[in-house]
Amino acid sequence: MKSSDQSAEKSSQNHKQVQKSTQVKLSDLQLMVMKVLWQQGKLSVADTHQLLNQQKEMALTTVATLLKRMAEKNIVGYEKDGRQLLYYPLISEQETKTSMLSSLLSNLFNDNPSELVHHLVSQDEVNQDDLDKIQQLLQQGNAQEGKTNE
Known about the structure:
Elements: H1 3-21, H2 28-40, E1 43-44, H3 45-53, H4 60-72, E2 76-81, E3 84-89, H5 93-109, H6 113-122, H7 128-149
Helix pairs in contact: 3-4
């Protein structure tokens, strides 16, 4: 193997290790908080509580504890604004989706995407419109792959 091939392979392995070490795991409540922060940006505990209560009733102290623990885990950051803290997301929605889907795929479907799709289709989780969109995305992906292989 050429040294450039070896370094490229080593770089690829290092990249995979970095990706695995930044695995995002969120509880349902944490995910609700993140969705609010992704939509709104910086929010106080009270504002976050108010928006979350539109979806699920919970105590202000629960929201404060959630945000504090998420900050300790570097999921959210905060800055002082007078006497209150404003919380904001440190991880992107796309990063979270990628990581959580990767974990789901690995843990429940043995790293087999076709098993996941089969499950969705067989459980009537996907309607015909969604199937048509998926088919179109697959065709676009195959067309782009053909261009890069030429």
